From TrEMBL:
InterPro entries: DHS-like_NAD/FAD-binding_dom, NAD-dep_sirtuin_deacylases, Sirtuin, Sirtuin_cat_small_dom_sf, Ssirtuin_cat_dom. Zn(2+) binds at C128, C131, C149, C151. The keyword Zinc applies. It holds the Pfam family SIR2. The active site is at H120. The lineage of its organism: Bacteria, Pseudomonadati, Thermodesulfobacteriota, Desulfobacteria, Desulfobacterales. This is protein acetyllysine N-acetyltransferase. Keywords: Metal-binding, NAD, Transferase, Zinc.
Amino acid sequence: MENLIKKAAKDLAKSKKVVVLTGAGVSVESGIPPFRGKGGIWEKIDPMEFAHIDSFMRDPAKVWNILIREMKDVIEKAKPNNAHIGLARLEELGILKSVITQNVDGLHQLAGNTDVIEFHGTFAFQRCLKCEKKIETSKVCLDEIPPKCECGGILRPDCVLFGEMIPPEHLFRSGKISRECEVMLVVGTSAVVYPASIIPVDAKESGAKIIEINPEKTPLTENISDYIIMGNAGEVLKEIVSEVELLL
Ligand code: APR
């Protein structure tokens, strides 16, 4: 893995147009479980029953009790780990331009990245189903489930649930920057959820070098990624950034 770390550091240091696509794997070392694979949330509960817009509308209390309440606890305790910190440092060094994240935990912004496209929305806010008002999740009282807005409407996370559209502005902007970047880091994603999973394909077709960081292979690994560094994001990104700093 050592020489791949050095290879990635060289590829990054010589580029000024690097974009990263991240998934739940970058937040695992912050204590937020992934969705798939070892310890994955979807190994315990069925996403179609608890994370689909139709199931939320049918029984919001059930989704709040089984999924959202726990997400609130876990995310509120989470701090950026070495993966988030490494990506923020790459922005400071003028190498990383934008982060496209599938995560809703806000840890990239907390670590210091300033251009973060939250492709699946954000858990930082809840949105009223009736008046669309947004309320900070940390300010939502869970004495009543499902929690309600002052107008009486039910609150839901400002995240994209299964069965919902990705906000068009995120689709457009992610497509644009993935077609313009020279290098795309793909970190901590199983690359199985569309349309996020085709972002690296767009980048590849537009001539970018694709570097995966993941302890496991993904559907991108064989045909899209130029190479995969098989390890934990925190440790790998920390080592890559140290190598990059020696090259600058
Ligand atoms: N470092 C890097 N990668 C890791 C680590 C780690 N420490 N731990 C796990 N991984 C990898 C796993 O091997 C897996 O490939 O992170 C990936 C996590 O995959 P998922 O849980 O499927 O997360 P993600 O790809 O972000 O899911 C996409 O699915 O359920 C929806 O909306 C949800 O945004 C999510 C989307």
